[in-house]
């Protein structure tokens, strides 16, 4: 009797244990599967429902006029070299950002459409999404998703703004930019070199997730090749790699350089794009390099962060930043390697070589600083064509036909 009862109790216990472990196993499996799926989804967003036809992307001009209050100054949210940007609200309540390209673009309507359709296909959570375009007479307009928070420079270089950029947020922003750039370089069907990556081209959404803007502009905003200044460099001083500034050569590695500068800016909270003007021009990179060499890398960190940061993450980011701004183009990592280095601590990092600031000021830029800061956009057609083609580490396109 007693032993029977005991046996029954044991088997009941075993039974419960089995049921519980099966339940746990099933739960674990479904969680794993869900993770795998959402990851997969993230990698191949919208591959299934291809929205490539021109009609679905073309907005009626009257809709754009209505959304932006006829491009009223009140709706204006930015002004770049490519034209003004307006905030708009569609009749269904959706917020949009409307970029009205300046008229100096002589690109034909068909070509503009084709390029816009191609760029609209680039979809990644860390890229500002192009929703469509509008053509009306001379007007060429691009319509983007509206990203609620301001651009990164606004927060980073403003004492009040940088308060809301704690270390986890900054780290998330760094990783997000790296992923977005990797997608442009490697994962999208078009291989795009951004050419003007900088803090003001990083927009932040409501979750403070970064979204890269202004990519693909070399394709969309094509200027007549017969215009005088086809050798002007597109980009912003301070972020442009030396080989790009001096010789007009660009490759994915010039984007990597800009990423390195941006990364160091995010860590230090210091802007420095005054490479040619100020006496202290080489400030950011030499400051970073000097402190790194002296084993005081943590001094780079924005003092506003005080003690609230992960030492390992900060050190690794600084290390990666220095690898990206190395003078030797071949030694700079690809974005694929950068993303890998950020996500896995088992990847050992090389010792960085000096960055590209040395001897920088001895040479003259080929055009006055101001022109380039205004994001001059002239580039020739064949150049932007070759962007789409065989870009890899070694392909370097000569911009300067002189
Ligand atoms: C654009 O809107 C106007 C006015 O509402 C309309 O007459 C025209 O047919 C529309 N064009 C297209 C292409 O939908
Ligand atoms: C929009 O503004 C332009 C000039 O600023 C004007 O010519 C045009 O009539 C306006 N359109 C509408 C629909 O108000
Ligand atoms: C940015 O987003 C955060 C989080 O949603 C929010 O608290 C903050 O007010 C936003 N900042 C701006 C400038 O919109
Ligand atoms: C815009 C900006 O922050 N520029 C800085 C560049 O570096 C010098 C060096 O000390 C700083 O004084 C500037 O403020």
TrEMBL record:
Pfam families (alphabetical): PK_Tyr_Ser-Thr
Metal-binding found in the keyword field: no
SMART domains xrefs: S_TKc
GO BP field: immune response; response to stress; signal transduction
Transmembrane spans: 12-32
Domain spans labelled Protein kinase: 71-335
Keyword hit for Glycoprotein: yes
Ligand binding (ATP): 99
Residue spans of biased composition, Polar residues class: 384-395
UniProt cross-references to SUPFAM superfamilies, sorted A to Z: Protein kinase-like (PK-like)
Annotated Basic and acidic residues bias: 361-383
Record localization: Membrane
Ranges where the record places region Disordered: 360-402
MF terms in GO: ATP binding; protein serine/threonine kinase activity
UniProt main location, coarse: membrane
An annotated GO cellular component: plasma membrane
Membrane topology: Single-pass membrane protein
InterPro entries per record: Kinase-like_dom_sf, Prot_kinase_dom, Protein_kinase_ATP_BS, Ser-Thr/Tyr_kinase_cat_dom, Ser/Thr_kinase_AS
Keywords from the named record: ATP-binding, Glycoprotein, Kinase, Membrane, Nucleotide-binding, Receptor, Repeat, Serine/threonine-protein kinase, Signal, Transferase, Transmembrane, Transmembrane helix
PANTHER family: CYSTEINE-RICH RECEPTOR-LIKE PROTEIN KINASE 5, RECEPTOR-LIKE SERINE/THREONINE-PROTEIN KINASE SD1-8
Membership in a protein family: Belongs to the protein kinase superfamily.
Protein name: Cysteine-rich receptor-like protein kinase 35
Species: Nelumbo nucifera (Sacred lotus)
């Amino acid at each position: 009797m007693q032993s029977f009862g005991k046996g029954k109790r044991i088997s009941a216990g075993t039974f419960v244990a089995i049921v519980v472990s099966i339940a746990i196993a099933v739960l674990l499996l479904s969680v794993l599967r869900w993770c795998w799926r959402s990851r997969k989804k993230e990698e191949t967003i919208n591959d299934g429902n291809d929205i490539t036809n021109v009609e679905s992307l073309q907005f009626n001009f009257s809709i754009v006029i209505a959304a932006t209050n006829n491009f009223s100054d009140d709706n204006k949210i930015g002004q770049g070299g490519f034209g003004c940007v307006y905030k708009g609200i569609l009749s269904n309540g959706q917020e949009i950002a409307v970029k009205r390209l300046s008229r100096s673009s002589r690109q034909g309507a068909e070509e503009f459409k084709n390029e816009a359709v191609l760029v609209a296909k680039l979809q990644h959570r860390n890229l500002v999404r192009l929703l469509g375009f509008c053509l009306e007479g001379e007007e060429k307009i691009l319509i983007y998703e509206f990203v609620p928070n301001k651009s990164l420079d606004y927060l980073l270089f403003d004492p009040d703004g940088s308060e809301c950029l704690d270390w986890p947020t900054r780290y998330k922003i760094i990783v997000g930019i790296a992923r977005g750039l990797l997608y442009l370089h490697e994962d999208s069907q078009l291989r795009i070199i951004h050419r003007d990556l900088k803090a003001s081209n990083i927009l932040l959404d409501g979750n403070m997730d970064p979204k890269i803007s202004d990519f693909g502009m070399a394709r969309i905003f094509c200027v007549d090749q017969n215009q005088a200044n086809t050798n002007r460099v597109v980009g912003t001083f301070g972020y442009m790699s030396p080989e790009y500034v001096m010789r007009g050569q660009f490759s994915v590695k010039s984007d990597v350089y800009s990423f390195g500068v941006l990364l160091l800016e995010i860590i230090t909270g210091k802007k420095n794009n005054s490479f040619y003007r100020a006496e202290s021009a080489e400030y950011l990179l030499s400051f970073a390099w000097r402190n790194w060499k002296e084993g005081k890398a943590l001094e780079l960190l924005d003092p506003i962060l005080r003690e609230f940061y992960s030492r390992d993450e900060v050190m690794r980011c600084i290390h990666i930043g220095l690898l990206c701004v190395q003078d030797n183009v071949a030694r700079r990592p690809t974005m694929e390697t950068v993303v890998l280095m950020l996500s896995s601590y088992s990847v050992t990092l090389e010792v960085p070589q000096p960055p590209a600031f040395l001897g920088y000021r001895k040479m003259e830029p080929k055009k006055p600083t101001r022109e380039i800061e205004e994001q001059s956009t002239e580039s020739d057609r064949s150049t932007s064509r070759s962007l789409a083609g065989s870009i890899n580490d070694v392909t370097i396109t000569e911009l300067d036909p002189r």
